[in-house]
Each structure stands twice: as structure tokens, then as C-alpha cells.
Amino acid sequence: MKFLCILLLFAITSAYEITQLLVPLHADPRRAAELSCHFTMDEHRLHSVKWYRDMNEIFRYNPSQKPPIRLFNVSGIMVQSGECAAEWCAVRVMPPPVATRAAYTCEISTEGPKFLIARQTKYMTVSAMGDRAPVISGAPPLVRPGDQLMLNCSSDYSLPPSNINWYIDGELQKPEPWEQAVVSSPREGGLRASWRVLRVTAPARGSGALRVTCEAELPLEPPLLRDSSVLITVHSHTHPDKYVANRGQSSVLSLHLLKLSLIWTFMEIYRYMSL
Ligand SMILES: *[C@@H]1O[C@H](CO)[C@@H](O)[C@H](O)[C@H]1NC(C)=O
Ligand SMILES: *[C@@H]1O[C@H](CO)[C@@H](O)[C@H](O)[C@H]1NC(C)=O
């Protein structure tokens, strides 16, 4: 009986707990992230709720103090606001504009004299994906065997910046030293775009097609991939200029014909007069 009582007492004293900790897995550096901690106190009275980022306290709720909420500015993180009720506490934090992963801990403590503590931790990674797939430029639809092309692939702005991989007919192209990716200067939230060129030589003989793919890889865990492809036709018998003949060229031609016919007319007149 005594044992049962102790067990029952233990069950009651351990009835305070964090029931749910909501921390987004990824946070966009351009927007505040919302984190919330839900708990039950049962027989206990709440003394305080604290939020930590890694080891640093960023927020404290102490219902018996005035003001009950205190925000702490920790370098690289800004707590915008917080709101608490009997069984939950939510904070809005502005993530730093760098690709980082940090631990967010919610800690509740009961009133004295015991000040019993319960805590839970979750991780949030700061990242932002672009809206569009990578864009390939400098790829004509039709080339001749042996033609040299300079392609350029640019990714959308993201955090961290994307790595760029080129494939020809599914085969990864190792970059030459001068073909390394270039990263732009940062925009709002630390987002950057990247681009990489690729020199392609069409096969020296025969006809066919090259499938060129550019892949933008956001280096997260797991990586996020996006790609775009172009099809370049290689044709030996067709002169590509034939397809780009324009009105400019045909009007030059008719001007020549006009000149020739004028010369011919003068020569005819001259011959007639000299008779
Ligand atoms: C935290 O720092 C930011 C900018 O440095 C400031 O605007 C904000 O008022 C500070 N918040 C607190 C609670 O001190
Ligand atoms: C490649 O494209 C990017 C983005 O449009 C541009 O800034 C860069 O100058 C281009 N590079 C070359 C070599 O054309």
C-alpha cells in the first residue's frame, strides 16, 4: 500500500510535461519563423518558460513578474515577439541571413521550492529555395559538326547558393579550371545566384543530337535538385544560315539585280547609239 502511494505520488509529480514542440525544419531568412511550445502542468504551477537558441536564452516568460515577457537579443538572431498562455508559449524569431542550423529549446519550470524542469529541443536550418529552375543560355537549336559553343547556366537566388552541374547526354561534365561556378553578391536575406559556363564541341562528323542538362543543387540535407535541358541538333548537310536567311539579305540581293539590269540597259543604249 505504501509502495502504491509512492507510485501514485510519483505519477502526480511527473505530470508536468512538454506535449508538443513546433519548430520549422527550414526557415526562410526573409520572414520571421514561428516556434511554439505546448505543455501541461496538471497539479503544478508554472514558474517560467524559457526559449534557448543553442546555449543562449532568447526569451523568458515569468507570469509572476512585471513585465512577464522578456526578450533577449543574441547576436545573429532577433526575437520579434512572444505570446504565452496557461498551456503554450509562442515566439517569432528572425533567422540570421546565413545558412545555419541551430538548436531551439523550450524549457518549462514549476514553482519553488522544487523548480522542476522539463525541456525539449528541435533543430531549425536557415535556407531559401529559388522559385525558378536554372536557365541555360547560348544554346542554338541547330549546329554543324565540330562547332564550338559556349553555354551558360544560371540558377535562381537561394540560401545557401546552388552548386551547378552540367551533363551531356546524362554524363556529368567535370569543370575546367576556368569553368568554375561564380556566385553573385547577396540580396535580401543573404540569397545568392550562381552561374557556370560550359564549352561544348559538337562531334566532328555525323548527325545527331546533344542533350545538355544543367542541374542546380541546393546543398541541404538532403540536397534539393532542379534542372533544365536543351536539345541541340547536329546536322552536317544543312547549312544553319539557310534557316536564318532574312529579309535583309534578300533585299540586298534584289538591289544587286537592279544595279545589274541598269548597267545592262545603259550598255544596250550605248550600243544602239554608237550604231
Ligand atoms: C534587438 O535588436 C534589434 C536590432 O539590433 C532592435 O531593433 C530590437 O529592438 C532589439 N530587441 C530587444 C528586445 O532589445
Ligand atoms: C552567365 O549568366 C549570368 C546570369 O545571367 C551573367 O551574369 C554572366 O555574365 C554570364 N556569363 C557569361 C560568361 O556569359
UniProtKB/TrEMBL annotation:
Signal peptide range: 1-15
Family annotation (InterPro entries): Ig-like_dom, Ig-like_dom_sf, Ig-like_fold
Name of the protein described by the UniProt record: Ig-like domain-containing protein
Keyword Ribonucleoprotein part of the UniProt annotation: no
Keywords of the record: Signal
Superkingdom as given in the UniProt entry: Eukaryota
Domain Ig-like: from-to ranges: 134-217
PROSITE patterns cross-referenced by the UniProt entry: IG_LIKE
